[in-house]
Amino acid sequence: MKNTVYINKKAIEVESGTTILQAAAQAGIKIPTLCHLEGQIPKGACRVCMVDVEGAKNMVASCTTPVNDGMKITTNSREVREARKFVLELLLSEHCGDCKTCVRNDDCELQQLAIEMGVMEIAYPGEKLITRIDESTPALVRDSGKCIKCRRCLTVCNEVQGIGALAAQGRGFDSVIGPAFDNALEGVQCVQCGQCAAVCPVGAITEKEHIDYVWEAIEDPSKFVVVQTAPAIRAALGECFDYEPGTLVTGKMVSALRLIGFDRIFDTNFAADLTIMEEGTELLTRLKTALVDKKQVALPMFTSCSPGWIKYAEYFYPEFLNNISTCKSPQQMFGAVAKTYMAKKEKIDPKNIVVVSVMPCTAKKFEAGRDEMNASGYQDVDYVLTTRELARMIKQTGIDFKALDDDKMDSPLGQSSGAADIFANTGGVMEAAVRTAYELVTGKELPLKNLHIKEVTGLEGVKKASLKIEGCLPEWSFLEGVELKVGVAHGLGNARKIIEAVRAGETFHFIEIMTCPGGCIGGGGQPRFTTDEVRQKRIEAIYKEDEGKTIRKSHMNPEIVQIYEEFLKKPLGSISHSLLHTHYHERN
Amino acid sequence: MANETETVVKHCQCSEVSEAELYERLTTIVRSQRTVPGALIPVLQTAQNLFGYLPENALRIISKELKIPYSEVAGVVGFYSYFSTVPKGKYTIRVCLGTACYVRGGQDVLRALQNELNINIGGTTPDRKFSLEVGRCFGACGLAPVVMVGDQTFQRVKPAKVGEILKSFE
Predict the structure, then answer these.
(1) Residues spanned by the domain of B95
(2) B70–A164: do the CB atoms touch at under 8 Å?
(3) Is residue A364 flagged as an active site residue?
């Protein structure tokens, strides 16, 4: 049913059940909010979104108030502005943080709103929140003094990711948002995905910065500092420099990294192609074991690129750990080959090589420090910067990002196929693997338009597809006529759904799981603020990058061919085994 | 810490029932409530009645069986002053700090009790005899300041007399 409502005297038609906040958005009228999250049940926690409704006793929070037919709403009057400013001043009176030295300076919704509302003094000097810094985890830092109790973090942790590491603790002025009994984050089942940091309107949850370590390494003449950038960075970094979401800035990013002073600019995409070689072969090997050797083997196989997902499985689904591909993530494969293969080629002692990653992800900071990730004899990846941190580094140098020319990645770990690009988004790893595996098995290109598996693209939470394998080469004849069933889930709440479907007996051969909604393009380390619209634009940019390449299949990447010829010999071979594969263990 | 735990077990009011048995009872009760909406608070009350307080293990069981994140269970426990995660003493002392008691020196009485027992508000003496809490009006304003020890009420309490009151509970 349609309702007619009047916002600032303008009549608009909306579906009944629409909230005032949504109705205003549809009419292009901005109502400020610090707690609202699209797609989630409104909490009415921040009280900033107040509006005047004719006939109502008090002003109402527009996020929690559904419209009535004929409702007359005022979003802009002196009373409304003053009420919002009053709420804002109360929030600011408790907020214990100094904008000048806050990591979120210039990226803070509270600060931005204070500017917009014209708050010039804190009219209520009173008790401040107590600042307690929780640095217990490798990836995230919590600052209780800055928290405005908007509850976005716990909403995303509970409702989107289905983990529930955070909740409101205590009561009244003493309440804090945190793990049980406000203990350290390290002690609870947190997967370090950083979605909380991505939605926090202030600086209460942020990534643990590695910027200073990276500068120190760059300035140390004895160190050879190489950098790798994940596929999702190039489609999002521009947003930190006022580009529209979905603007590809690959070439400028390489230029900026060179100006920052890295000795080599390489690409995680190269390692993504390497992952496909290993993971695709692993999938086919598992299928062969099941179908030809008739032996017990863990199927479906799950992808292993997303470290938040790995930690999630270790906590919540340990019985599926054997189903997870033994392939390390592209970040870790890169680190391992940089300190072995590249070290040999460049004739540099690996102990002097520093590998820096730029990732859309906070969990990658955790992953780099895992015990399993020292295959080169050293920590394979030394430091991990989020996209946001890289933007801050670029700003620290004074580089005029927009004025930069395009530059190219270095060899031998810099070239990549279009298949590697799409690792950035949900459905992409699956599609990349199928492009190579299909061709390996049949000798023919994947017979789909633009090489895309349409059913697994897009933002639907759980996606499924099946693909009939026909015309197999003789050595793969056992796959002739097999319907390859694949599944894709993004966001851990959706991961749970697909795993429960597997538990209930649904058949899949291969399942891709990405921790964050939208995949890595929506990662916890990406520029803020990520909405579904932004996710969609970044995904479009990634597909554009993929389709713009002449080489779109991992096995066709000449640098991949070269590394197998010169170093690894063959996928799943003994060198691969020791450098590129690992196993995970149950966690309590 | 270890000593404290020992004391807890020794002085537990439910010492006639073994701890394992209490946990077994709790698990049975929680499982019967799995499908009941809003079961968390009644279950917490039951658990507190069983153990005299809410031990961490009990909260873990409740979280797991009701499929409610541990952080949320902890949030509810922390929200209501009724719930306690530390063992309570045999007698709970409640010092009224309602308006009448407050103006007639309830605060001084409270301070005297804190000194005498050497615990803070919400605390319990190491021998688990007394816990100290603050109340907001017991409806006996004419007798202010009022202190309750267990279910006994003491009227017009003077700070100097609190030692005597406590002795009567030897």
Answers:
(1) 91-167
(2) yes
(3) yes
